[in-house]
Every structure is written in C-alpha cells, then in structure tokens.
C-alpha cells in the first residue's frame, strides 16, 4: 500500500522535486498549493489541494488521510517584506498545528543553513533567517516526529549527482556551500524512511569530492 505524503510548496523548485522523488519511491504525493500555484506537467496527475495556509479548516481537509507532511513552502523574494514572517514562520506553524489536530505524526521541514542568525545578508529580505527559526521551533516543540533539513545555497543542477556526496552535520555547523535541489529532495525522501532522523536538525551541502553515503550511516557519526 503506497503511503500518501503531503508536500506543501509543491509548485516550488524544491517542492516539485520532492514530489517527483516520492513518486519514484512508490509513494503517493498529495500536492498542497496556493490557488494560483503552477504545477509542472510531470505532476499533473497527482492529487492536488489548493488553499490558503491561514485557513485552518481548508488545511485540515487537505491533509486528512495523509501519512506524513513535507513542508517545502518558503516566501518568494518580493518587495513585500512580511513574506518570511507569514510563510516561513506562521505558515509553518499553521501546518504543524493541522498535523497535531489530525494526528499526522511525521513532519519534515525544509529550512535553511543559518536559520536563527540575526546578522546575515539574507535577512535584508524580511529577517528571513529569523522567521525560519521561528517556524523550526514550532515544529520542534510540537511533540510530533519531526525532522528539519537545512540546505545550503540551492542550485538547479541535475547533472553528475549520482557521484556527488552530501556533507551532513548537526545544527549550526555549516554556513556556506551549496547543494542541488534534487539532492535535497532525495534527502527528504530518505529521511522519511530513516527513523534516526526523527528529532534532528540536519544541515546539508554537497560536493563531488565526497563519497555518497546513506543518511542512516551519516547520522550515526553526526553530533547533535
Ligand atoms: N534559494 C536558496 O538558495 C535557498 C537556500 C536554503 C534554503 N532555501 C529554502 O528552501 C525552500 C525551498 O526553496 P526553493 O527555492 O526551492 O522554493 P521556491 O521555488 O521559491 O518555492 C516556494 C514554494 O512556496 C510556496 N509559497 C510561497 N508563498 C506561499 C504562501 N503565502 N502560501 C503558500 N505557499 C507559498 C510557493 O508557491 P507558489 O508557486 O504559488 O509561489 C512555492 O511552491 C524555501 O523554504 C527556501 O527559503 C532556499
């Protein structure tokens, strides 16, 4: 029986790859989207739910029956500097609260390296790193089976990924370097099947110089 995994922000460049990787793993992604979100052609046949994240009833209806949620929403760069607060903090909190109401225990959040930092150039966009940490904390304090994945700078590169290893660390260990969104998506799907990832903040960047290893093996040697 395939698991039904909700992916919010599934129209985003990481979110749609997470949905694709879930399909590849034999799971059934359910796409949580805004009314205006545009979904790539390859995901048109997936279940879709369109809603406003602040609408608790709509969120409960969209998540009902799911086995897990992957949160890949994130404020898009804009002149509206309230986006990070609305999406990365309150939007995450609304999703976590819906999972608590519905008894959906497994929740994974795509956050960012340097979440929680006050002094950082990225904060010029609405204190985004501060609000991301508020979103992370809502999940960490939820009592759910949570995992936070904090990627470095995201790239669209799809080539050469099979030989590329991920540098995994605990919280606040990495502050630069990049990782292709495809590898972040694979890492999210792997985390869903890796119990050792529960209750962990996992920072990820990647390099062709690193040997690919499983998340489980990596977590056995990662502190924190
Ligand atoms: N860019 C980087 O280098 C970087 C580095 C580390 C971490 N991150 C974080 O990683 C995550 C994924 O990044 P990405 O660049 O792949 O994402 P992205 O392409 O910008 O996609 C963002 C997603 O969030 C959705 N969204 C935005 N505002 C929303 C709202 N008010 N309500 C509901 N959904 C909303 C978007 O929906 P629409 O399609 O409808 O707009 C889209 O599906 C984000 O949290 C981002 O902050 C990014």
Give a structural overview.
The protein has 224 residues and is of the alpha/beta class. It has one domain (4-221): NAD(P)-binding Rossmann-like Domain (Rossmann fold), CATH 3.40.50. The chain is 31% helix and 22% strand. It is built from six helices and ten strands, in the order E-H-E-E-H-E-H-E-H-E-E-E-E-H-E-H. An eight-stranded mixed beta sheet has the order 3-2-1-4-5-6-10-8, sandwiched between helices. The longest helix is centred in the middle third of the chain and has 20 residues, at 83-102. The protein starts with a strand and ends with a helix. The model has no long low-confidence stretch (mean pLDDT 97). It binds NADP nicotinamide-adenine-dinucleotide phosphate (NAP). NADP nicotinamide-adenine-dinucleotide phosphate is lined by residues 9, 11-15, 34, 36-37, 53, 72-76, 86-87, 91, 110, 112, 151, 153-154, 181.
What attributes characterize this protein structure?
224 residues, alpha/beta, Rossmann fold, 8-stranded mixed β-sheet, two-stranded parallel sheet, binds NADP nicotinamide-adenine-dinucleotide phosphate
Q: How many helices?
A: 6
Strand content: 15-25%
H/E element string? EHEEHEHEHEEEEHEH
CATH topology grouping: Rossmann fold
Q: How much helical structure, as a percent, in the residues?
A: 25-40%
Q: Strands of the largest sheet, in order across it?
A: 3-2-1-4-5-6-10-8
- Hetero ligands: NADP nicotinamide-adenine-dinucleotide phosphate
Silhouette:
globular
Tell me, what is the CATH class? Alpha Beta
> Oligomeric form of this entry?
single chain
Q: What is the CATH-assigned architecture?
A: 3-Layer(aba) Sandwich
Tally of structural domains: 1
Mean pLDDT: 97
CATH superfamily: NAD(P)-binding Rossmann-like Domain
Q: Could you tell me the radius of gyration in angstroms?
A: 16 Å
Structural class by secondary-structure content: alpha/beta
Identify low-pLDDT runs. none
> Termini distance?
34 Å
The major beta sheet can be summarized as: 8 strands, mixed
Number of strands: 10
């Amino acid at each position: 029986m395939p698991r039904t995994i909700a992916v919010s922000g599934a129209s985003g460049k990481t979110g749609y790859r997470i949905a694709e990787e879930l399909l590849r793993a034999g799971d059934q992604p359910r796409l949580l989207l805004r009314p205006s979100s545009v979904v790539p052609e390859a995901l048109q046949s997936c279940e879709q739910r369109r809603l406003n994240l602040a609408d608790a009833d709509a969120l409960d209806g969209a998540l009902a029956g799911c086995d897990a949620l992957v949160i890949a929403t994130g404020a898009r760069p804009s002149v509206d500097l309230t986006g990070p607060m609305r999406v990365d903090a309150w939007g995450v909190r609304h999703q976590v609260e819906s999972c608590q109401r519905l008894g959906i225990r497994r929740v994974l959040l795509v956050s960012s390296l340097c979440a929680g930092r006050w002094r950082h150039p990225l904060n010029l966009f609405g204190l985004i790193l501060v609000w991301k940490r508020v979103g992370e904390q809502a999940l960490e304090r939820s009592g759910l089976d949570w995992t936070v994945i904090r990627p470095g700078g995201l790239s669209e590169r799809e080539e050469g990924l099979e030989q590329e290893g991920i540098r995994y660390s605990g919280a606040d260990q990495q502050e630069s370097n990049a990782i292709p969104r495809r590898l972040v998506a694979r890492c999210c799907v792997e985390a869903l099947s890796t119990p050792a990832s529960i209750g962990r903040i996992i920072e990820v960047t990647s390099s062709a110089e690193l040997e690919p290893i499983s998340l489980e093996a990596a977590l056995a040697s990662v502190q924190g």
